[in-house]
Every structure is written in C-alpha cells, then in structure tokens.
Design a protein that fits this description.
The complex is a heterodimer of chains A (about 120) and B (about 325). In chain A, about 20% of the residues lie in helices and about 20% in strands. Chain A is α+β, with helices and mostly antiparallel strands and about 120 residues long. Chain A has a domain of about 60 residues: Roll (Ubiquitin-like (UB roll)). A 3-stranded antiparallel beta sheet of chain A has the order 2-1-3, with helices on one face. Chain A is elongated. Chain B is mostly helical. In chain B, about 65% of the residues lie in helices and about 0% in strands. Chain B has a two-stranded antiparallel ribbon with strand order 1-2. In chain B, α4 packs antiparallel against α7, α6 packs across α10 and α7 runs antiparallel to α8. Chain B starts with 13 loop residues before the first helix and ends in a 12-residue tail after the last helix. Classes of the chains: A alpha+beta (about 120), B mainly alpha (about 325).
C-alpha cells in the first residue's frame, strides 16, 4: 500500500504495483466541438473540443472547460462527426479573379462625376 | 522560390527527412517560413508529426500529473480563500491537460493511447513532479516558480507553427497568469511573515532549486535535429535560453524577499548572462527514468483513478459512439 505525504492517498489504499488493463478504444468517448458566445450580440465562436458520451455531458464539460471564468453567456456543442468541413488541400475553391472592385463599396466613386456635373451647370 | 528546402545530399539532417516528397516538403517549409500555421489535415513530414505528438503529449501528462502534488494540499491549505484558490488552480491544470490532449489528438494519436503510454511509464512528463511537496511552503514555491518556468516555455511555444498547439497554449497562458500571481502572493506572505514562516519558505526554496534548474532540460546540443526542429518552429527556444530568461526574471524577485539560493556561483556576469553551477544531470536522468522519490506513487495514483472510474465511463458509453479525429 502507498504511504503518501497526502493522507487521502494513504486512505485510498492503493497498491504500489497495480497494473491495469489498457484503456480500450472509445474508453474516453467520442468528441464534440464546442462553440461559445462571449457576450450577447457577439458571434458564437469555436473554442475547442470535449470528450463526452452524449450531448448533455458535452454541454457540462464544455461549460467547465471553456466557461468557468464567466467568459461565456451561451454554449453550443455538436458532434465532431456531424460537422462537414472543407479540406485545406481544396483551398483553391476560394480562388477568384483578383479584380473585384465591383463588389466593394470603394469601387464606386461618384463625387468626381457629381462635381464635374455641378461645374458644367 | 522553394529554395530553402533544397536537400543537400551531404547534409546529415537528410536522415530526418529521408523519404519525404521533396515538392511537398518544399511547400511545407515555405509555408512555415512565411509565418503561416500548419493545420491538422495538412501534409507534414513524419518527423514533424512525431516530434509534435511527443512534445504535446508530454506537456499534457505534465499538467495532469502536476495536479497531484498540488491537489495534495487543498485540504490543508491555510484558510478558506487559499483552499478555493488552490482548487481553482488544480482544476485549471486538469483543464490544460484536456486542451493539450485534444491538440495532440488532431495529429492522429488517440487519447486512450496517450493515457496508456502514461500509466505504463512509456511516456514522460515534467521531472519536477517526481518530487514531493513536504510543506505548505513547497506548494507555494511550486505555484510561483514552477508555473513561472512553465509560462516562459509556453509563451515561446505558443508562437510555434502548429495551429492547434498554439491555440491551446494561448488559452493556457491566460490562466497561468493567475497561478503565478497566486503563488507569488503566497510566497511573499510567508517571506514577510513570522520567523517560522520565513524558515519554512527558505527550506522549500532550497529543496526546490535543483529541480527548478532541471526544469528546462539539459543544454541543447547544437545538432542537426535541433536545427531542423527550430526551422520547422516545433522548438522555439533552446533550453539554455529559456533557463537564462527564467533566472533573469525571477532571481532578483527571490533576492528582493531576502531569500537565498543554494548556489554560491549564481551571479549575473558583466555580459548580462547568468552563471551558475551546472545542475546534476545524472540525477535528472535517474529521476526521469523512474528513480525519483514520487514516480511510482504518481503513476499508481493515476492507474487507480483510471481503473476505479472505468465502470462509470463504460456505463455512459453508447453503441453508436464513433471516434473521429477532432477538427482543430
């Protein structure tokens, strides 16, 4: 038995040699992706994952892990395997023509035309 | 444009990257040199993946084992406020382990595999946690100076190239600042207290100084291995650089309190570098390989926790559970 400096460890009566069966797959459950909202009005943001056996437990773990300093007002959890993702290898799907001024506010300059028109009158 | 990944056939570091696709390696190195982060599903050299798993996993184990010597003191912490603070700190450390295990999982090693490697003694964790916390003052010195060392290491690594590790470390560093303040406050309380309190904190500091000097690890040999890991931004500072930074920040604060350190050679030289007696690296090796005063107890306690909690985890599991590698 372990004689520890910690009386609680001594009381737990732990054998010093206590080999155990290895943890099997899924012993630590599957994972959930956690999203939190820092304050009302903000977007929810992805903050990390928790391992949990169901959504309720994922919610409790998510709250403990990411909201224990009062930095969240709302939390979402979703199973990792239910998230559809794009691959970084396919990032060329975001490629586009370099000239996109026509969809920017700055691509429209009317004052020049107005001033020219006013001068003309 | 990918010039930095040219593989010189005479370069000894060649062995580390042998068999890697030169085009992919070039793109990978180019990404890192541009300061871009690597994300979980990106192509990466096998050695990059292996070293990161080893580093992040050891870091996670250190957090979870590190909670043991401190958790010991929760019931005996003097006063209600300190009990609350220490409980919060220990919970943070376990939370850090959760974040780090998750980051390592994105590289393809399951949490079960990591825990198995911990409890069988295959994986290492920070050597300091193989020493006991004899008195309350030991717990205070750990909270102040071990966490200070951890912050130096973590702030450096947070700027590394692997996205998930950096994100976990950013979150961890925020919480560590509370640990550091809490530890400093406790040490200052003892050092400015009664004669008995001063003696207690001085004795703890003297006990902990050798493990603290060991904390950053032996001098890095300037090897090809270190060179390539630094180029890949896996390792962000040498062990000696981090040790110097620690001494520079904390020795003056220790001396400010009128405490002494058990190394007569410790001084800052004219060049601004700290000189010290070389730590006993044989002792370091002996302890990290299982010969320390607490190695056996730490792992036995960890095995007990896994074993006695197993039925709960199994009871909660459902047949439709399916593990896939976490996203980020």
């Amino acid at each position: 038995m372990i004689k520890s400096l910690d009386p609680r460890i001594t009381r737990a009566e732990i054998e010093l040699e206590n080999p155990i069966d290895p943890l099997k797959d899924l012993d630590q459950w599957e994972t959930y992706e956690v999203f939190h909202q820092k304050k009302r009005g903000d977007q929810h943001m992805h903050v990390g994952i928790v391992h949990a056996p169901n959504a309720e437990m994922a919610f409790i773990f998510g709250k403990e892990q990411f909201g224990r300093r009062g930095m969240s007002v709302n939390i979402w959890v979703v199973k990792t395997r239910d998230v559809f993702t794009s691959d970084y290898d396919d990032s060329d799907i975001f490629d586009t023509v370099p000239e996109k001024q026509y969809r920017e506010a700055g691509g429209y300059k009317v004052m020049e035309k107005i001033n020219k028109y006013k001068k003309g009158n | 444009m990918y010039g930095n990944a040219y593989i010189d056939p005479n370069d000894k570091s060649h062995a580390i990257i042998a068999g890697e696709d030169p085009q992919k390696l070039a793109e990978f190195e180019d990404r890192i040199s541009r300061g871009e982060k690597v994300e979980p599903k990106d192509w990466m050299p096998a050695e990059y993946r292996k070293q990161l798993i080893r580093m992040i996993e050891q870091h996670a184990h250190s957090e979870i084992i590190g909670a043991l010597p401190e958790g010991t003191w929760i019931t005996r912490a003097p006063g209600f406020r300190r009990k609350l603070a220490l409980m919060a700190k220990v919970q943070d450390e376990v939370g850090h382990a959760q974040l780090l295990y998750s980051a390592a999982e994105t590289l393809g090693k399951s949490r079960e595999a990591m825990i198995n490697d911990l409890i069988t003694g295959k994986s290492k964790y920070s050597n300091v946690f193989n020493y006991p916390a004899y008195t309350w003052a030991d717990a205070c010195i750990i909270a102040w100076l071990i966490d200070a060392g951890a912050i130096i290491n973590q702030v450096a690594n947070a700027k590394g190239s692997y996205g998930p590790y950096g994100r976990a470390l950013d979150r961890i560093c925020t919480e560590e600042s509370f640990h550091l303040k809490y530890g400093h406050d406790n040490v200052v309380t003892l050092a400015t207290g009664t004669l008995k309190q001063r003696e207690m904190v001085q004795a703890a500091l003297t006990r902990w100084w050798p493990p603290i000097m060991h904390f950053f690890g032996p001098s890095d040999k300037i090897s090809n291995h270190t060179e390539i890991l630094m180029r890949w931004k896996v390792k962000m500072a040498t062990n000696d650089d981090m040790r110097q930074q620690f001494l520079n920040m904390y020795v003056p604060k220790i001396w400010d309190l009128g405490l002494t350190l058990p190394d007569k050679n410790l001084k800052k030289n004219a060049a601004g570098t700290w000189e010290y007696t070389e730590p006993d690296w044989e002792e370091f090796k002996r302890v990290i390989n299982g010969g320390g005063p607490c190695n056996a107890e730490r792992l036995a306690v960890r095995r007990m926790a896994e074993e006695r909690g197993r039925w709960v985890r199994e009871a909660l599991n459902t047949a439709e559970s399916k593990y896939i590698i976490p996203l980020a």
